[in-house]
Design brief:
The protein is mainly alpha-helical. The protein has 8 helices and no strands. It has a domain of 127 residues. α1 packs antiparallel against α7, α5 packs across α6 and α5 packs across α8. The two termini are 24 Å apart. The relative contact order is 0.11.
């Protein structure tokens, strides 16, 4: 399986959106620009998440009722949010990292397999070597630690550092740090796994598509 031009363009578009949002979030969380616009940018991730959850309801009346509830709640909270834009961005950043930490971390306990092990089984048609099992568990643990560390540092900077420092870290440095984490994981994988046991990028993309709900379904 090869990655198509359409998939590449979609990925580039997603990166462009993330970069644009990060820049807008930096200026917004430091109080620059119009408060209503800054509040809208800060609330956008929450609204997008709620919209995705509502879309899974499938029943038109449920979607309409949920949409009205979200819109009403947002309108009710708007005056408070626009007066506390920085706190809104902090909650968004902290909540995102804690959610990912929980997503990865909870799979390290109990009878199931670590999250990255589950992905690896799909890529390898259910068959994993002992090396792959060790690596995928350690990688899941590493990502859990990364998100916990990110949440902790964000909290410390928000509480103790000048606000511009926290905003720069949360809005502009988080994405590059995630990129560095991916690069470090790739180098680690190259070191501990032989070539025949390393997944291809196209295979990883296929797994991601399989784990993502189909549009309109």
């Amino acid at each position: 399986m090869t990655v198509s031009a359409t998939q590449v363009l979609r990925s580039l578009a997603l990166v462009a959106v993330m970069v644009t949002w990060g820049i807008a979030a930096f200026f917004g969380s430091t109080g620059q620009g119009r408060p209503d616009f800054n509040t809208a940018v800060g609330a956008a991730p929450f609204v997008a998440l709620l919209a995705m959850l509502l879309w899974r309801v499938r029943h038109p009346l449920g979607i309409a009722a949920g949409g009205l509830l979200v819109a009403g709640t947002l309108a009710w909270l708007w005056p408070s949010l626009r007066q506390n834009v920085a706190l809104l961005y902090f909650i968004e950043h902290l909540g995102t990292n804690l959610a990912f930490a929980a997503l990865f971390g909870k799979t390290l306990f109990g009878p199931g397999e670590p999250l990255i092990t589950q992905f690896a089984r799909i890529v390898n048609n259910g068959v994993l070597s002992g090396r792959q099992l060790r690596y995928t568990r350690q990688a899941t643990l590493a990502w859990t630690g990364f998100f916990i560390a990110n949440a902790t540092l964000s909290t410390l900077l928000y509480a103790l550092a000048p606000h511009a420092v926290w905003s720069f870290y949360a809005s502009l440095l988080t994405a590059p740090l995630i990129g560095l984490m991916f690069a470090a994981e790739h180098l680690w994988r190259m070191r501990v796994l032989p070539p025949e046991e390393r997944p291809r990028i196209a295979d990883v993309f296929r797994v991601w598509r399989q784990r993502t709900p189909a549009k309109g379904s």
